[in-house]
Design goal:
Elements: E1 15-19, E2 25-27, E3 32-34, H1 36-44, E4 49-53, H2 61-74, H3 82-91, H4 100-128, H5 131-152, H6 159-164, H7 167-198
Parallel strand pairs: 1-4
Antiparallel strand pairs: 1-2, 2-3
Helix pairs in contact: 1-2
Length: 199
Amino acid sequence: MVSANGGEAAEGKPVVVKKYANRRLYNTATSSYVTLDDLARIIKSGADFVVYDAKTGEDITRSVLAQIILEAEQKGQSLLPLSFLRQLIGFYGDSMQFLVPGYLEQAMRAFAKNQEQMRKSFEETFKLFPFGPVEEMSKHNLALFEEALKMFAPFAREGTEVAEAAPQDKEAGRLERLQTQIDALKRQLADLEGKRKRG
């Protein structure tokens, strides 16, 4: 198993991290000091780790994982709703406390499984409809929309050319465009009438 920092642990075994009195974390797989962010990356890479107190040998993995979550929450990456945190605190010391860890573990496994299925569904969808053609369709639709706007607001897009043109040229241009639009509308009406009669 390869850690996020390039160190390797025995296959199927988590990376061993030691926490010293100065609060520094030492990754025994890479023989280097690491931060909580480094440990978070190890988890995100699909690997695992355990943390032992360097002096007592006590397994303190749970408190280090809680620190990683706390640090992420303080950075504004909030995943835990306030109501959930309050309910969780309420279960400490409660007679039903022993049921909570198993329930939360099952819920997170189910969520992770659903998340993976959603990811696969998105990937399959984008294989059927790749982004390139969708982008081309969007451009085409935008061009059609702009053309439609020109038909309904024929003088809105004249810009500086119209402003600089002589009054007679402007009038002649407007009449010509108006005639073109009237002809186009007549053709569309004729097509609709033909379709209605055939239908």
